[in-house]
């Protein structure tokens, strides 16, 4: 899945993932990398949420092929992929043009200031993008104020561009005890549910349904899986996922 060895592309420390020039340089060299896992690993969770008329926004697309996978699944209401890195955006445009793929717009945009009208999309999806904001969060139980401010900004933008009954899917390392305080903030109207996927190490697939918050949706705290042991993480995570995770959650 990874086109390049992790040692060739990872920054010296996890906080390097916050530097926009890091991504430009990386996407200038790397053709394809899927953070965590590719679509086939979570298709069973995403496909039931899809329908042909959906308009979809992917936030922080990098050089992932998720946009094309959504097209192949029959999504025809418009797919927009955004990334902060102009290099990633140009490479993705070139790839789509070379394939003759139509129906995916790729745009340079900051997820902290999304340039779309309110209520524009039926589905917003991110894979590993919110996790970038956590790489220098400090104590995961009490993230630093900058992390909190930026995560809330990202979520406010996504909530704003979602249609009234739109769905936000977040695919992440972040365990429920570190994500709930953000997802369940009082300014949001979405319900919060999650599933896991992956062998051994679990990735989290959160489904947030706008306008659907209810008391029941907030009651999953008793089913949090235990944090993985450090040796299991070493053995079972792809090597770059391990570097990325190191500052993300407590090991
Ligand atoms: C960990 S990679 C995930 C890439 C892709 N989603 C995947 O699954 O392979 C994080 C991506 O977020 C992008 N990114 C970082 N900060 C961003 C921001 N403020 N707005 C939009 N994209 C951002 C990076 O350029 C990078 O492509």
UniProtKB/TrEMBL annotation:
InterPro entries: Lys/N-term_MeTrsfase_sf, Methyltranfer_dom, SAM-dependent_MTases_sf. The keyword Amino-acid biosynthesis does not apply. GO terms for molecular function: methyltransferase activity. CDD domains: AdoMet_MTases (cd02440). It catalyses: N(6),N(6)-dimethyl-L-lysyl-[protein] + S-adenosyl-L-methionine = N(6),N(6),N(6)-trimethyl-L-lysyl-[protein] + S-adenosyl-L-homocysteine + H(+). Coiled coil: none annotated. Gene3D superfamilies: Vaccinia Virus protein VP39 (3.40.50.150). The keyword S-adenosyl-L-methionine applies. One of its GO terms (biological process) is methylation. Residues 52-174 form the Methyltransferase domain. Pfam families: Methyltransf_31. Keywords: Methyltransferase, Phosphoprotein, S-adenosyl-L-methionine, Transferase. Protein-lysine methyltransferase that efficiently catalyzes three successive methylations on 'Lys-36' in eukaryotic translation elongation factor 1 alpha (EEF1A1 or EEF1A2). Belongs to the methyltransferase superfamily. This is EEF1A lysine methyltransferase 4. It comes from Setaria italica. The gene is LOC101762264.
């Amino acid at each position: 899945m990874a086109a390049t060895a992790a040692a060739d592309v990872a920054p010296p420390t996890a906080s390097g993932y916050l530097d926009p020039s890091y991504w430009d340089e990386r996407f200038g060299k790397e053709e394809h990398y899927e953070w965590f896992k590719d679509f086939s690993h979570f298709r069973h969770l995403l496909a039931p949420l899809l329908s042909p008329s959906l308009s979809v926004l992917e936030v922080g697309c990098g050089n992932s092929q998720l946009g094309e996978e959504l097209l192949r699944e029959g999504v025809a209401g418009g797919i927009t992929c955004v990334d902060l890195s102009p290099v990633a955006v140009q490479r993705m445009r070139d790839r789509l043009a070379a394939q003759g793929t139509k129906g995916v717009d790729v745009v340079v945009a900051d997820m902290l200031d999304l340039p779309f009208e309110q209520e524009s999309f039926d589905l917003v999806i991110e894979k590993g993008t919110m996790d970038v904001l956590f790489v220098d969060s400090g104590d995961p139980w009490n993230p630093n104020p900058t992390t909190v401010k930026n995560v809330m900004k990202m979520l406010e933008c996504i909530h704003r561009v979602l249609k009234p009954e739109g769905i936000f899917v977040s695919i992440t390392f972040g365990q429920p005890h570190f994500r709930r305080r953000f997802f369940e903030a009082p300014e949001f109207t979405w319900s919060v549910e999650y599933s896991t996927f992956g062998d051994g190490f679990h990735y989290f697939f959160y489904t947030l349904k706008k306008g659907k918050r209810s008391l029941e949706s907030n009651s999953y705290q008793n089913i949090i899986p235990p944090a993985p042991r450090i040796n299991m993480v070493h053995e079972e995570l792809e090597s770059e996922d391990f570097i990325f995770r190191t500052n993300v959650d407590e090991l």
